[in-house]
Amino acid sequence: MSFAAIIFDFDGVIADSEVRANQSLAESLTAVGMATTYDECLRDYYGHNWQETQRRIEARFGRPLPADFRETHRTRARSRFMEGFDAVPGAPAFLDTLGPMPRAIASSSRAEYIGWALGLFGLGHHFGDQIYSADGWDRGKPHPDIYLAAAKGLGVDPARCLAIEDSPTGAQAALAAGMTVIGFCGAGHIVDRAAHGAMLRGVGVHHIAHSYDEVLLVA
Questions:
Q1: Rounded mean pLDDT of 74-92?
Q2: What are the pLDDT digits (tens) for 95-126?
Q3: What's the CATH number of domain 18-81, 3.40.50.720, 1.10.150.240, 3.90.1200.10, 1.10.10.10?
């Protein structure tokens, strides 16, 4: 089928951010006495918005996070990102190929962070105001709400949208919205790409892409 729009997840699809994000979350949790490793963060919190992540952390440790935790963590994460943060390889060139095709971002991250990162990468003009954030929503991914909001904002039937997702949680959200989904395995946090692709296939994605060259074959 020909797609009427492409909807991108952000972290791990546009921004090569998941290694730094999960390293900094592990450090922030450990600093407040909730010892957590990078691998545990990637396993348990990857792909979820902050509200769900906080629920999961507090359920695991049986106590609330400190009131200033998110702000303190945000400062630590921003510092890590500034050490060498960049777009996912191939993402800028792929966006350049899209011409007038409608596109949006549907992410679990904060809108302010997405805008900052797009500015850093010089990619903001590709999306304009079509940036949808599930931060603050009670129903983030894997619920379809954020993808449905993005399709509505673009004025496109969800069934005619191609979604690009790197996490099982996000892929489930796009699938639940009725979209065709590419499981993307081209970012730095994915060490075993074959295993990650198999995991995404397991949740039902329609295609697997290990790079943006492979996304082009579908889009």
A1: 90
A2: 999 999 999 999 999 999 999 999 999 999 99
A3: 1.10.150.240
String of DSSP letters for the chain = ---SEEEE-SBTTTB--HHHHHHHHHHHHHHTT----HHHHHHHTTT--HHHHHHHHHHHHTSPPPTTHHHHHHHHHHHHHTTT--BPTTHHHHHHT-TT--EEEEESS-HHHHHHHHHHHT-GGGTTT-EEE-TT-SS-TTSSHHHHHHHHHHT--GGGEEEEESSHHHHHHHHHTT-EEEEE--STT-S-HHHHHHHHHHHT-SEEESSHHHHHHH-
Please tell me the CATH superfamily of domain 5-17+85-218, with its number: HAD superfamily/HAD-like (3.40.50.1000)
Would you say the pTM of this structure is higher than 0.85?
yes
